[in-house]
């Protein structure tokens, strides 16, 4: 189960990274169409504004089709082999899933016309509030009127199709029909199996939707404590990599909030934020803050201020003879954290060394979310580093209260710095550079050729025969091995790894930071050629 959850969490990263990039473009486009920011002269330049409007439409394409991207990404990430076939089958499955729901809804007399606000209010005699609640349960996906399941539909289809694929992609049929065997059988079984899943979902989803809505109201009623719970739990899950799953629940379900934007009901923190900044009608920052309370400023407090200050404290606590090497190690993590919001290179320098430091970080991280929510800050962004702060804070104007991020961030930096220094010195925590004995060998630098580095990594993992699979997420190389006893962690450290996670005895995650994508590609290529 742990291995499954790891692969599932990793498979969600591809669409999320696309959202992050599209969100930046959407934020820039929104700023460039705001006359209060760029001036009336620029905002009235028809040709330029038409082009910027097209950029906003492109970004909207990403957000509007996120469920199908999830379905395809899960199939790509979790298929054992023949990933292209899995992705193709997942797209077919997604279409069939919503076609089936559309057909079942139509049999019950539920269409876009009969669930519209006007029809419900005029023909059913419902109030606007009650009509809005019913109307919000349905939507149109790729032309099909269907349940508004958001990314859940993509996740369900992706998981089911992946199961079909891994079970049947090598199937052998009788010789007379074996043309349809193997990978060709997967789309066929998808066409048969997904309607059954859709039929079950037709009756199960209203129950699930009700439960999710109740949870969402519970967190909403918790006030500022809701963001605190989310922030703290998010950091607590970092060592397992399962924080990505928590993120998706908050970003794309009613647990992350519900808002009406441009006459449409939008659910999920990230959906609300992106819809709000993408609205051409103009949306108040009160609406934007509903989404950004879970997406943006709370994370910024730690990644731009808190964790860099913690890194500085670890540098200052290192022994004099080791400080230069520690500074080089920590500085890269600080830069990554501030600019991109990637925190793991810094967090892995202390989270396994000291539960006290990690606990302190969990509490402070949650407080950052809660304080920003209490103050009504409306600065968002998926990665929530300096780039997102600039695009979604500075460029969107003073009403976002971006200045409070700087004020509270500065205070948080002081608390992090002295908190870390006190804990490290009080409990003699062995953060980098404080060990009694330092290794003489220097870590392998990026100057080492890719094939040489790949060879070192493969050898440190016990050789080609010991490696069952190699994947990666945003910062970690994820490897499944046959015999974990053959892994040489010291040799892996020498290749530039900043930490390790072992979710199961056969799984090891090696933290390389943002360069891991290239490392994974090189290692896979090396394994094929030896």
TrEMBL record:
Superkingdom: Bacteria
Alphabetic keyword roster: Cell membrane, Kinase, Membrane, Phosphotransferase system, Sugar transport, Transferase, Transmembrane, Transmembrane helix, Transport
GO biological process: phosphoenolpyruvate-dependent sugar phosphotransferase system
Domain (PTS EIIC type-1): residue spans on this chain: 1-436
Major place of residence: membrane
Transmembrane segments: 59-79, 86-105, 145-164, 185-205, 294-314, 326-342, 402-424
Gene Ontology molecular function terms on file: kinase activity; protein-N(PI)-phosphohistidine-sugar phosphotransferase activity; protein-phosphocysteine-sugar phosphotransferase activity
Segment forming the signal sequence: none
GO cellular component: plasma membrane
Keyword Transferase found: yes
Ranges where the PTS EIIB type-1 domain occurs: 451-530
PROSITE patterns xrefs: PTS_EIIB_TYPE_1, PTS_EIIB_TYPE_1_CYS, PTS_EIIC_TYPE_1
Subcellular location(s) of the protein: Cell membrane
Active site: 473 (phosphocysteine intermediate)
Membrane topology summary: Multi-pass membrane protein
Keyword Cell membrane included in the entry's annotation: yes
Protein name in UniProt: PTS system, maltose and glucose-specific IIC component
């Amino acid at each position: 189960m742990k291995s499954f959850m790891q692969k599932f969490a990793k498979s969600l990263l591809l669409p999320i990274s696309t959202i992050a990039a599209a969100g930046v473009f959407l934020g820039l486009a929104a700023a460039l169409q705001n006359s209060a920011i760029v001036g009336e002269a620029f905002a009235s330049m028809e040709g330029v504004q038409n082009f910027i409007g097209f950029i906003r439409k492109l970004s909207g394409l990403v957000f509007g089709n996120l469920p199908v991207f999830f379905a395809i990404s899960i199939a790509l990430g979790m298929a054992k082999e023949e990933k292209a076939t899995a992705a193709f089958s997942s797209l077919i499955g997604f279409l069939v899933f919503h076609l089936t729901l559309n057909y079942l809804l139509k049999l019950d007399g539920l269409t876009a016309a009969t669930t519209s606000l006007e029809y419900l209010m005029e023909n059913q005699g419902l109030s606007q509030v009650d009509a809005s609640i019913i109307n919000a349960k349905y939507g149109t996906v790729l032309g099909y009127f269907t349940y508004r399941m958001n990314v859940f539909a993509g996740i369900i289809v992706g998981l089911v199709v992946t199961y079909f694929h891994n079970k049947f992609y090598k199937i052998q049929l009788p010789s007379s029909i074996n043309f349809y065997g193997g990978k060709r059988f997967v789309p066929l079984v998808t066409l048969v199996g997904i309607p059954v899943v859709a039929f079950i979902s037709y009756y199960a989803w209203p129950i699930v939707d009700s439960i999710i809505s109740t949870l969402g109201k519970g967190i909403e009623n918790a006030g500022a404590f809701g963001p605190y719970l989310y922030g703290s739990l998010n950091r607590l899950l970092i060592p397992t990599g399962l924080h990505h799953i928590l993120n998706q629940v908050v970003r794309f379900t009613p647990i992350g909030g519900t808002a009406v934007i441009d006459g449409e009901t939008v659910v999920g923190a990230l959906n609300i934020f992106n819809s709000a900044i993408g609205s051409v009608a103009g949306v108040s920052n009160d609406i934007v803050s509903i989404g950004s309370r879970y997406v943006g400023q709370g994370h910024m407090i730690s990644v731009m201020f808190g964790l860099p200050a913690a890194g500085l404290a670890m540098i200052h606590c290192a022994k004099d003879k080791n400080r230069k090497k520690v500074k080089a190690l920590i500085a890269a993590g600080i830069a990554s954290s501030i600019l991109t919001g990637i925190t793991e290179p810094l967090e892995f320098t202390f989270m396994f060394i000291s539960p006290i430091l990690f606990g302190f970080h969990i509490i402070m991280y949650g407080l950052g979310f809660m304080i920003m929510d209490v103050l009504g800050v409306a600065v968002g962004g998926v990665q929530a580093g300096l780039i997102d702060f600039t695009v979604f804070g500075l460029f969107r104007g003073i009403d976002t209260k971006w200045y409070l991020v700087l004020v509270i961030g500065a205070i948080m930096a002081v608390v992090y710095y002295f908190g870390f220094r006190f804990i490290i010195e009080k409990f003699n925590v062995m953060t980098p550079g404080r060990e009694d004995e330092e290794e003489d060998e220097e870590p392998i630098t990026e100057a080492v050729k890719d094939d040489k580095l790949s060879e070192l990594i493969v050898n440190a993992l016990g050789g080609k025969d010991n490696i069952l699979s190699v994947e990666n997420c945003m910062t970690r190389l994820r490897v499944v091995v046959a015999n974990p006893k053959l892994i040489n962690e010291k040799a892996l450290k020498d290749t530039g790894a900043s930490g390790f996670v072992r979710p199961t005895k056969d799984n090891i995650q090696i933290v390389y930071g943002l360069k891991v994508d290239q490392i994974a590609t090189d290692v896979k290529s090396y394994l094929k050629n030896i």
